[in-house]
Amino acid sequence: MEAGAGAQRTRIMVVPESKPGLPPHIKLRHDAGRGRWHVLAPERVFEPDPIAIEILKRCDGVTTVAQIAADLAKEYNAPLQEILTDTISMLQELSDKGVIKA
Amino acid sequence: MNEIAPLEQFSEAPVVEACARAPVGLLAELTHRCPLQCPYCSNPLELERVNQELTTAEWQDVMRQAAELGILQIHLSGGEPTVRKDLEDIVEVAAKAGLYTNLITAGVTLTRDRLKRLKELGLDHVQLSIQDVDDANAEKISAYKGGLAKKREVGKWVRELDMPLTINAPIHRHNIENLPNIINFAVELGAGRIEVANIQYYAWALKNRASLMPTRAQVLKSAEIVEEAKERLKGIMVFDFVVPDYYAKTPKPCMGGWGRGVMNVTPQGKVLPCHASETIPGLIFDNVKDRRLADIWLHGQAFEKYRGTSWMKEPCRSCPRREIDFGGCRCQAMAFTGDAANTDPACHFSPHHAAFVAAAETESAEAAPPAFVYRRMGGPKTPSK
Question: What are the tens digits of pLDDT across the range A69-87?
């Protein structure tokens, strides 16, 4: 069995310096008919909760996880360390599901 | 983050209620033609012929109507969807309508140029099926020479074109022992997902059940292999594991509930609640040539017949799981008990459950299973010796 060189993937570990983004085949879309956001992925449709939506909207491949957390902490007037921990764990879960790249 | 209504929803994640009135996915069987002859094909025994197939314009209209109805994902399937020369025209319209497009292919009729063109037109994802990672065995299962080498090539093209790849591996007694190699094959190709999908016994697979059924011990072992691999490959490859429900205690929530999340359009335009539902007598299947898709979904007799829970009899009617598994599969209830409104015999509350399990245990214990009845136009033929 031979596959293309370097085809094999490795697990991404999300850290404060990571710059998460959505790969082209993952689509964050607002569904006007149902009045909600969806993440469209290969043979899956996810329904992100309000916090996940706020995080995903900020995943532009340029902004770091630390910056995203700082932004959210400011916007929701919440403790930064707590937000950073929660953001990293959510992004790690999303990365493991193939929803984001970092 | 909740996950809603994948194509094969065998998980117990509840389908979001608001989506119950609009389907999430549409399986478009573009054609029943296929160069492979796998004996577990989910197409009906009576395959629809090329001169009955919807035209390009008719399929394009189905895509536009699907998007209007609120469908999010289109699964372009078959038969082999790439034998339709107008696949590009259908994909283009589907993508423009905002649908997430998924190509379900055996790969053997694809070229790299065609795949590249499909990507440019908006194809989002490729699901490539494999029969086994042993060449001779793959040829025996599919009755097609050189398939595996071609599939490996197609998988490489998908990754070179930077498209997401799912490997779909239907599992049965003739390849279940090769599962670790099948998983490795998918990893080496760079697949982001694998479906380790034990055969579900409908249509051709039901015809060939005695040839295909693995033993309970084999299934338990395969579940262990998947659990180990899932952990080891976390963040590298996502697993979907479909168990054969003959060895389950509770039934799968077939199609995520009848007429609840998914619909199926056949090559000639019949709209079905699931691809096997034509085996149930008394259902009326509307055609996209006669009626709007939304109207069929909301009011079609076949969709209304088993939607929700009001059609249920005991033990389903008073069961606390009635809105989790919706009584399982209507087609399996029909095939095994003679009444589609009965509890799926995969459920241990069904009076038919013991006989159902015994069938699997007896057949899988046969040292020499019967020869395959290959999937061919014109219906099943007795296998040649």
Answer: 999 999 999 999 999 999 9
| A53 close to B (CB below 8 A) | no
Q: Rounded to whole angstroms, how far apart are CA atoms B143 and B95?
A: 34
Condensed to tens digits (0 to 9), the pLDDT of residues B289-323 reads 999 999 999 999 999 999 999 999 999 999 999 99
Q: Per the domain annotation, does A83 fall within a domain?
A: yes
Question: B188 and A44: CB-CB below 8 Å?
Answer: no
How many distinct structural domains can be found in chain A? Answer: 1
Residue B381 backbone zone (phi > 0: left; psi -120 to 50: alpha; other: beta): beta
Range of the domain at A66: 27-96
Asked whether residue A33 is domain-assigned, the answer is yes
- Verify whether the Cβ–Cβ distance B235 to A96 is below 8 Å: yes
Query: Is A20 a domain residue?
Result: no
Sequence-ordered list of residues with C-beta below 8 angstroms from that of A89, at least 6 positions apart, any chain: none
Distance CA B261, CA A47 (A): 14
> Is A30 near chain B, with CB under 8 Å?
no
Identify the closest residue of chain B to A25 by CA–CA distance.
B124
In this prediction the ipTM stands at 0.88
What's the CATH code of the domain at A41?
1.10.10.1150
